[in-house]
Inverse folding.
C-alpha cells in the first residue's frame, strides 16, 4: 500500500472549516483514499473514502487532486467534538489498513 | 448495542503472565481484524480472519501471540509470557466483505498494561 504524509497537528476555531491535507504521491490506480478519526480512548471511526472523484457525506467532504497524489479532508463546520487524531490511509481493496501517525486536530472555542 | 464489543476494557498483568482478550464482531460481518496501538502511534495491523480462517499474520505477531475465531463468530487474542513491550491498546474491527468502507467498524479496544 502507498504511504501517506500528514502534518502532525493543526488547530481550528469552532464553527470554521477545517482543511486537513494528505500527500500520497505513490498511490496506484486501484488504491482508494480513506479517512478515519480517533477520539481519545476510542477506536478509529470511518469518515469517508474516495477513488478519483470528490466525495461528500454527512460528516465531511473529500477533495482528491486530478493526479491523485494528494487529498484534503474538509470538516465544514468544526465543533469541539471534532477534536481527534485524523488518519489518511491509502489501501487496495482487501481490507487491511495501514495507519500512520495521523494529524492531531484541536478545535478551540 | 450492535457495534463491535471488546472485553475487558482494561487489563493489568504481571510480566510473564498469560492474558486473553475477546472480541465480538457485528453479527453479520464475516471479516475480523486485530490491531495493536502504542501511545502516540496509529494502529498496527496484527492479523485478520475471514469467517474462521486466519488469512494473514503480521510479523508483529510473535509466537507468543495466538488468535482464534472458532465457528467464525467471536475471536480471542492470547498473549503468553507477557513482556512490558506488550503494553498497548489492542483493537478489534470487523467488516462485511473486503473493502474497508463495507461497515469496517472498530471496537473501543482493550488496554493492556504489563507491570
Amino acid at each position: 500500500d502507498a504511504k501517506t504524509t500528514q502534518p502532525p497537528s493543526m488547530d481550528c476555531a469552532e464553527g470554521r472549516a477545517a482543511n486537513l491535507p494528505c500527500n500520497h504521491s505513490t498511490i496506484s490506480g486501484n488504491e482508494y483514499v480513506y479517512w478515519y478519526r480517533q477520539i481519545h480512548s476510542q477506536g478509529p471511526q470511518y469518515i469517508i473514502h474516495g477513488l478519483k472523484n470528490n466525495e461528500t457525506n454527512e460528516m465531511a467532504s473529500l477533495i482528491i487532486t486530478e493526479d491523485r497524489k494528494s487529498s484534503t479532508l474538509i470538516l465544514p463546520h468544526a465543533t469541539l467534538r471534532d477534536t481527534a487524531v485524523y488518519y489518511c490511509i491509502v489501501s487496495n481493496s482487501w481490507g487491511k489498513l495501514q495507519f500512520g501517525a495521523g494529524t492531531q486536530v484541536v478545535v478551540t472555542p | 448495542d450492535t457495534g463491535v464489543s471488546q472485553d475487558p476494557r482494561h487489563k493489568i498483568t504481571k510480566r510473564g503472565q498469560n492474558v486473553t482478550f475477546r472480541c465480538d464482531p457485528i453479527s453479520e460481518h464475516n471479516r475480523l481484524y486485530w490491531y495493536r496501538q502504542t501511545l502516540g502511534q496509529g494502529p498496527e495491523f496484527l492479523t485478520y480472519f475471514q469467517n474462521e480462517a486466519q488469512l494473514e499474520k503480521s510479523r508483529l505477531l510473535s509466537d507468543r501471540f495466538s488468535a482464534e475465531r472458532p465457528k467464525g463468530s467471536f475471536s480471542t487474542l492470547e498473549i503468553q509470557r507477557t513482556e512490558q513491550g506488550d503494553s498497548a491498546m489492542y483493537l478489534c474491527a470487523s467488516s462485511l466483505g473486503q473493502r474497508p468502507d463495507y461497515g469496517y467498524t472498530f471496537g473501543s479496544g482493550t488496554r493492556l498494561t504489563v507491570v
